[in-house]
Every structure is written in C-alpha cells, then in structure tokens.
Predict the 3D structure of the following.
Amino acid sequence: MTESDAPASIETPAAFHDHLAQVAAETNDKLNDLLPLPRGKERRVVEAMRYAALDGGKRLRPFLVVACADLFGEPKPRSIRVAAALEMVHCYSLIHDDLPAMDDDDLRRGRPTCHKAFDEATAILAGDGLLTQAFSVLGEPATHPDANVRIAMIAALAEAAGAYGMVGGQMLDLIAESEDLNEQEVSHLQSLKTGCLIAVSCRIGGILGHADPGICDRLHEFGLNLGAAFQIADDLLDMEASASDLGKAAGKDAAAGKATFISLYGPERARERSKSLVDQAVSLLDGFGAEAEPLRQAAKFTVTRHS
Amino acid sequence: MTESDAPASIETPAAFHDHLAQVAAETNDKLNDLLPLPRGKERRVVEAMRYAALDGGKRLRPFLVVACADLFGEPKPRSIRVAAALEMVHCYSLIHDDLPAMDDDDLRRGRPTCHKAFDEATAILAGDGLLTQAFSVLGEPATHPDANVRIAMIAALAEAAGAYGMVGGQMLDLIAESEDLNEQEVSHLQSLKTGCLIAVSCRIGGILGHADPGICDRLHEFGLNLGAAFQIADDLLDMEASASDLGKAAGKDAAAGKATFISLYGPERARERSKSLVDQAVSLLDGFGAEAEPLRQAAKFTVTRHS
C-alpha cells in the first residue's frame, strides 16, 4: 500500500470512534445471525444468551480481530464471523463473572445482569451455551475454507480461555478478595483475566490472515500490552466514575479489598504505567505501516476512553 | 473378521464389565495426562477440575467412543484421547447441574459435589475450564493427524453440548420443576439432557474412524436409543435404590415434582419401554457383526445395572 491510498488519514481519534462503532454494528448483526433462534420450551436459555450477547458494549475484541485480519487483507465476511465468536466468549465470561457466587453484580452495560434479568440457573447455562457456540462457529467451513486455519484458531482460543488463561484469571480475582497480592501477582492476574482474550483476539486475526507464527506472536504481545493498559484504565474509571457513566457499579473492586495498580501505587503511577504500556504496544506495530493505524488508535483509545 | 477370530465370545456380561472397567481405567490415566497440572495461586480451579474429572464413574461415554472407533480399527491412543475429551464435557455438565442454583446436590459418585468440596465460584469455573479443555484436546494434532477429522469432531460435540443439545436439556429439566410436561416433552428433555452427549460419543467414534456419514448417523441413532433407555433405568434406580447404592441422593426427581416416564406411566411400563429402546438400539447394529458385540452389551448393560 502506498502513501497515497493509505487509510491513515481517516484514523484520527474521531474517525477511530466511527470505525469502532462500525465494527460493533457489524458484530451485532453477525451475532444476531450466529446465535440460535428461540424455539421450544428451552427457548429461555437462548433468550438469555441473546440478551447477554446482543446488549451492545464497545466490542473491542471484535475490533481487534478485524483490524488484525485486515493487516493481511482477509475478507471481512470471515473476520467478522471470528470476531463474533470471540465476543461470545467475552460475553460468557461476563455472565459467569457477574453471578452471585462470583462478583455478584446487578448491572452490566447499563442493564440488569443476565442472572437478574433471568435467574441464576439460566445465566449459568447461557454462559455455557455461548462458550460452546463460539467453538461451533470457529469450526464451521464458512469461517475459513481451510480446516487447519480453523483448528489453529480453536486451539489458540481454548488456551486463552482455559484454566491457565481467562478461567484462571477469574480464579485469581476471587482469591484476591481474601488475600493480598503483590505487584507481580496483580500483573499476572490481569494478564490472565483480561489480557489473554484481548491478546488472542489479535493473534487469531493473524492466524485467519495466514500470518507467519512470529507475526502472530507479535500481535499477541501487542494485545497483552493493550490489555494491561486497558485494565489499568478500567480500574481508574472504576475509581473515578459514577455508575451511570460506567453502566455498572463503581468502586466495587476497592470495596472488595482487591489489589489493583492503583491501590498498590496510587492513580498517578498507574496512569503513567498504562501510558507506557500503550507506547510498548504501539512500538510492536512498527513494521506494519499505515495499515496498522486502526490498531495504534485502538491502543491509544484504551487510556483515553470514559467508559 | 471371521467367526473364528471374532471377540464375541469374550463379551459375556461379566467380560463386558471387565471391558468397561478397562476403558474406565485407561480414561482415568488419559484424563490425568490431559488435565492441566496445579501450579500458581490459580491452582485451586485446576484442583477442582481434577477432583471432578478424576473421581471415577462408569465412564460410559468413553466406552462408547472407544467401542465405536474400534469398529473401524482406529488406534486406541487416538480413541482414548477423544474419550477423555468427551468425559470432560460430561463432568463439566455434572458440576454445573449439581450447583445450588440448579439441582442443588451435595453428593456425586459417593463424594461431596465439586461446590461442596471447594466452593460455588470455583465449581462454576472448574466446569468452564473442563468444557474449554475438551475442545482444546480435540483440536490437538495428537488426537488425529487430519485437521478435517478434528474439526468434524469439534463441530459434532459443540452441537450436542450446546443450547439445543445438553444445555437446552438442562434448561428444560429446570422448567420441569415448575411445569408439567407431557410424554413427548419428557422424551425431548431426556434426549437433550442425556441423549445428545451419549449419541455424539458414538458418532464421534465413527468420525474418528473415517466412517461414512450414513454410518455415523446410525451410530448416533444407536446412542440416542441407548441414552433414552439409560435415562429410564436411571429414573427407576432413583425410585428404588438407596443413596448409598447410587452414590448420590435418591428420590430427588420425584420430590422435585419432575415428570419422568415412571411418574407418567408407572414403573412397569417404563421398564418395558427401556427394554424396547435397547432392542431398537441393538437392531441398529445389525450390519456390524461380531465387532459390535461390546456395543450390544453396553446397550443391555444400561437396563441391568444397579448404579
């Protein structure tokens, strides 16, 4: 791609927000297509899956899948399917994390959480159904004609979502309520709980685009840095914002006695750290040129957003 | 295979029990290999996964995977990996079904249920971790060198375990606590809740053995009949046996007001129905000869077992 037709000029922060909103809208449409339709008495669990997955949200993970796949010219109909599958996994994790036995949250994205809108049993099953459906979508030929590509995405997702990935991160998060964690442990917790799924969204965009393993590793590393910055920004928002800004309860982590970078070092140093993580993330994109501008903007967005 | 070297002679009921125990032992060894090892503070969820998955049980689904794959001469090291993956999914479903928000069971296979031995949050996460790990194992090249075979198994499993499979069955089971179901609805509930995973264990054995789609469908149908017979037998045991025989609370379904074939038609007609389902299952194996003897014995076992 030459300078003249590079899309860099459209990726001002304002244009980035349009771009993010555009991918979010396409992700919603695709989720609507790919989620089961309610039928029979068992429709209740399907309605809960749809309630939780079609409720908006920034759709950051879908954006990262699509933006990374775009680096390699991968067709949008494929990348948006993969993006929807990743978002199903994210939504499943939110449903389960919000349960009374976990973080016990009543509000999510400005609406009652799944177990409040339905009930606890239905919410557990809706999470199970979304996780299962994500693997189903990634396995379908429409996602990519080459079974090896589909398998590679499934393997990467299973590792990132599993016991030493996202599930392990939520386990650590629960342990953090009753046990003091040091900086290294907080960093490990956050890289598992939030970082893994964000990083694998980037990696899977690369896999979908037949990128070399080294490039996929670099995209993964980019995602880990972005995810860490995102988490600190989240904690800062949690501290500063009101519930109506966030669409969820504010100040809960501090009330639960959970260690964050803010509780360990104060907001100033936490803010510096998140900025330095964004710089690291952006520097990992050095080889990519103008095509990576959406990813650079995404990294910057993580620390400038207000919700 | 000719009459002279057919293994039919070893599949007396007693030999079948040895065969079942042998596959169960190999499944346990393979689960032990394939489950993550405890490390770090997040080890708690891994310990819960191992507690729930390595606790014995009949391992009927693994047996069916192996016996179906054996029909096509598929090497045991492959079929036992697939068998272990299917058992992970079964164990995840038991953990979640036993939760206080679901069936609220304290005892499973003669031991405290996962949420009793650990806690509710850890049990939810352990179930999530097992489901994810199952897809991970099926995706690994060691399971089968051909990515198309692995993808076909993943697709079949995801369908069977999803919202219009096992998850939907558990949803219906919860609805059945407060709503009267008719015979057709009870049959549908049981085919989803128990039948789907048993049937897909048979189908996946066929997929692993490169069986024609028509043959895979026949094995699936065999599994559905066997699963339905198994469920009725389970309900009869639930009615008749003591908790110490079953290793779980007895008479719970009746106490919860859930419709079963027994509550609808009484134990005699339920027993007849389960025998006729076994006959149907066995007749689906007509083309297979002596190699299918383990599957025939498995079908008969479902109605003669005592736990």
In short: The CA atoms of residues 141 and 147 of chain A lie 7 Å apart. Chain A touches chain B through 53 residues (CB under 8 Å). The two ends of chain A are 34 Å apart (CA to CA). Residues 1-9 of chain A have pLDDT under 50 and may be disordered.
